[in-house]
Amino acid sequence: MTPNASPTTLFFIAGEASGDLHTANLVQELKKIRPTIRFCGLGGPRMREAGVEILFELTKLAAVGFVDVMRKYHKFHKVFHNTLEEVKKIRPAAVVLTDFPGFNLRFAQQIKKCGIPVIYYISPQVWAWKKDRIHTIPKVVDKMLVILPFEKNIYVDPAMQVDFVGHPLVDEVKPSADKDVLKKEFGLAPDQKVITLLPGSRKGEVTKILPIMAQTAELLSAKIPDCTFLIAKTACLQEHLYTTVLKRHSFKHTIIEGRSYDCFSVSDFALVKSGTSTLEATILGIPYVLIYHVSSLTYLIGRCFVTIPFLGIANIIAGRKIIEEFIQHAAEPAKIASYVHDVLRDENKIQTIKRDLRSVTDMITTPNASANAARSVIAFLDEK
After folding, report:
1. d(CA 290, CA 342)
2. Residues 9-66: tens digit of each pLDDT
3. What is the Rg, in whole angstroms, of the alpha carbon atoms belonging to the chain?
4. Looking at the structure, do residues 60 and 189 belong to the same domain, yes or no?
5. In a domain, 1, yes or no
6. Which CATH number goes with the domain that contains 159?
7. Burial of 4: CB neighbours in 10 Å, binned 0-12, 13-18, 19+
8. Between helices 133-140 and 101-113, what is the axis angle to 10°?
């Protein structure tokens, strides 16, 4: 352990809703092993509920794409340097960084200079873009906790310990009740055809993607008259952001807040914004399509760095397309509606998709991922 370091303090940084959730669960498991640890850092409401002293709610600053990052650059810059000074004062036993590579990798570089150990939970997707980071990350990270089995073999630098702990979502993604119970609660008939729309968890995502999904739903409603739609609303966004879009379209729908797993559970199909939600739908075994749309500049910049043929994590893990992706200019409501309608009419296709989703889930399933991660963190601290 470095001189003056506190053996009882861990400093966490999570910048997005998913990272906030995974870090909170990690903290809960760490408490079971070593309840005397003090937890502080940057994150969101889940981490606060888990007992982390939140110095700044970084999840509120989350940006979507290059353009949004540039708009918020000065805010990020200020938070970055204030946090750096705070960590230097606290001198924690280690800094634990969860995903959020644009911020966290730069922070790791600065903290490493201070002699404070760095643990990284949920590896940056170096296999998808900016592959040169495979060689730079071991220079600033002491221990990497990966959640996809193939990631362990990516890092071969002996300077960095790498543990595969399993994907935490496999343990976390569960509906709150049985499907029949939920259908009754949502006012759905037992044989009701249901499609969920999940346009994202941030304002920028909903603004860009919900209109595409709403137009698609309207077209599908004309093709499948008995179909109803659930709009999975994130709790942190105001409802008018959704109703402003939805009032322009005529299709039967209900807005459900903060219960995306339950929405997926009662659904026959889903339209899902690219990101963590697609993996949640995969784990729940719900057939879906991936929809992605950002500003033209952000898309063009991203194309320069992405080196894999798929955007969806299920397709990446499977090594082939099992879920249809409607990206940027291809995200046309008529095209999406036509595809979804054809799939819903083909029971063999539905069963094939479900079988493929189960296969992907099996590949990432290691029970008690958060507990595994906690044990890895404690082992690292004890070694130091």
Report:
1. 16
2. 999 999 988 899 999 999 999 999 999 999 999 999 999 999 999 999 988 776 555 4
3. 21
4. no
5. no
6. 3.40.50.2000
7. exposed
8. 40
Instruction: Name the percent of the chain in helix, strand, coil, to the closest 5.
Output: 50, 15, 30
> Which one, of 277, 291, 289, lies nearest residue 328 by Cα?
291
Query: Do residues 377 and 26 touch, judged by C-beta distance below 8 A?
Result: yes
Query: Could you give the CA distance from residue 310 to residue 196 in angstroms, rounded to a whole number?
Result: 23
Nearest to 79 by CA among 93, 96, 59: 59
Question: 81 is written with which tokens?
Answer: 């340097």
Same domain membership, residue 135 and residue 231 = no
Query: CA nearest 98: which of 147, 135, 53, 54?
Result: 147
Residue type, 363: M
What single DSSP character describes residue 132? T
CA–CA gap between residue 352 and residue 335 (Å, rounded): 21
Alpha helices by DSSP H, listed for the chain, are: 17-33, 45-49, 65-71, 73-90, 101-113, 133-140, 168-172, 179-185, 203-223, 240-246, 260-265, 276-284, 296-305, 313-318, 333-344, 347-364, 369-383
Look up residue 119 and give its two tokens: 């643990």
**Rounded Cα gap, residues 263 and 259, in angstroms:** 6
- Name the residue range of residue 100's domain: 9-166+366-383
Pair 204, 338 in one domain: yes
In the block, residue with structure tokens 């590896």: 123
CA angle 149, 92, 382 (to 5 degrees): 60
Q: Does residue 2 form part of some domain?
A: no
121: left (phi over 0), alpha (psi -120 to 50) or beta: beta
pLDDT digits (tens, 9 = 90+) for 131-170: 677 888 999 999 999 998 888 888 888 889 999 999 999 9
Do residues 59 and 20 make contact, with C-beta atoms less than 8 angstroms apart?
yes
Look-up of token digits 């609303």 = 233
| pTM of model > 0.85 | no
Domain assignment present for residue 171? The answer is no
